[in-house]
Amino acid sequence: MASGSSDAIRELENKVETLRGQVTLLSEKCLDLEGRSKRQNLRVVGVKEGKEDGQNAREFAGRLLKEALGLDETPVIDRAHRALRKKAGDKKPPRHLIVRVHYCHTYEDIMKRVMGTRDITFCGRRIQIFRDLPPEVAKHRATFTAVKRMLHDKPGVKYRLLYPAKLQVSHDGVEEVFTDPEKARHLDFSTDRSSGKDLLHYK
């Protein structure tokens, strides 16, 4: 009797473990699909409510990007809308503007311009433009913020955040990719006295 109960418990445990693995796999697939659906989306932060002034949302978004980033041409926009929540009051931050860019190469050109522009303004107001990412991905990428600040002050160090959340660091021909911000935090830079070259290693 006891042996039969133990076998039943083991069988249930195995089923639970199998189901747990399936749930993890499905969650990862859903996250990947969500990311792909947002692949050419921009999230524009700081545009005052009502600036559209009855203008077609797509036309407004195209004009905003052209003026704010100094683009040569107005980008083709598939759709644009405010974040789907209650309209913000006068004393609250405006809802984000979600913009879907039609062409992939235009989207990448816009993001390069964003990265190379220190202060982005529209109608005399400072705004921010980000990739529109799934919340879980955005949260994971945010864990690298402190590391990026540290690397920003290191001369000769280049870094970029790859999708979904991988930090690529290169220094004097040496390149490392990190998925764990804690591991990246322990990077150290020093000079080899014999060769005079900078080294990339861990503390």
TrEMBL record:
Coiled coil feature spans: 2-29
Record's keyword terms, sorted: Coiled coil
Domain of life: Eukaryota
Cell wall biogenesis/degradation listed as a keyword: no
Entry protein name: L1 transposable element RRM domain-containing protein
